[in-house]
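Hi V.,

You were right to ask for the full record rather than a summary. Here it is.
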Amino acid sequence: MSSRERLWTKSFILLGLSNLLLYVAIEMLLPTLPIFADERGGSGSQIGMLLGIFTFSAVLSRLLISFGLKKFGKRKMLLIGVLISLIGMASHYAANSVSALLTLRVIHGFGFGIATALYVTLVSDVIPAARRGEGMGYFAMGNAISFSLGPLFGLWLLDQYDFSVLFGAGVIILAIALVLLLLVRKTGELTEAIPAPAPPAYGSTVRKHSAWTEIIEPKVLVPSFLGSFVGFSFGGLLSFVTLFSMEIGIKETGCFFLVVAISEVLIRFVSGPLFDRKGASWVLIPAPVFCIVGCVLLYYTDSLMMLLLAGVFSGAGFGALFPALQAWVINLVEQERRGLASATYYNFLDLGIGFGSILLGVVVSLTGYAAMFLLSGILYALFLIVYFMYLLRKQ
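Predicted structure:
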């Protein structure tokens, strides 16, 4: 294998570890902040807003990302994003009520939005094109691992100590992530400058970028739109599975997150190479079916065993969908547009998560948790319908 085909470079590993730590710091708040709000009399819609307002802030930051890239470049923008996330985590100390917490989540979400888009952009530069599906799958394993470690660590800290220790741990984790990024700068494997485009051939037209294309990449609208369906359904799962488990008398909620994470990791050893060899459809068709099965199982869950089985299917489905959509997005654009393309994808994904956590919170208030999970399954069915329509139109 030639050096150009190497996947596990120093930059790839450091970026993966730093990305993992960013997500651990985020995920450790997912099961704990709803408890914070619930203990202080927060309603279902307010609990949903904890995740919703965070994601909307992330979306806003990514709409401005192209302007920041022109001024600072990719590495510096990523460092700025992680630094803002660190400040946002530390600001949680000032949250003495649900309304104050909602306000402070805006800062945290702004930094998270910048960081997530730039991690994908930088790592796509060091992954060989022929192994992009596989590489994105391995890189996104950090998200899957954090989905287990984060909630477990957060719930343990809250059980043993209190929210101040929880937030302090988050600050330390993000500080380490920042140090790892500084080490990436010293490897020399990434190039800051983007090669100048070749002059257009005689008689050809030059693509002009309007103000609209400075904040959204049109070429990736289809996979990004599909990502919004995934985010909508997953937002409900992230926001309410802990409270749902408590309602039906299951205390081992951490086991659910662990099973989901293991399922996410294992599926990527199959889905990534399958994406590269066979194409996107071999992943994007079966994966939503797994998610639908997981949602239906949650609807009927009345025991720990059923909850864990739902976690297996949900983890496998989301674990295959997320990196496959990422790789599809990167494959559709030129290198100099990857930052904006990643921002567009994450914006649609997070808009789905934001609206999903808020609207499904309203559904919880009206119908209960079980019906909300069933509604989430319908969103994955819509994903399949839209994707089949896209394939028919393409043919």
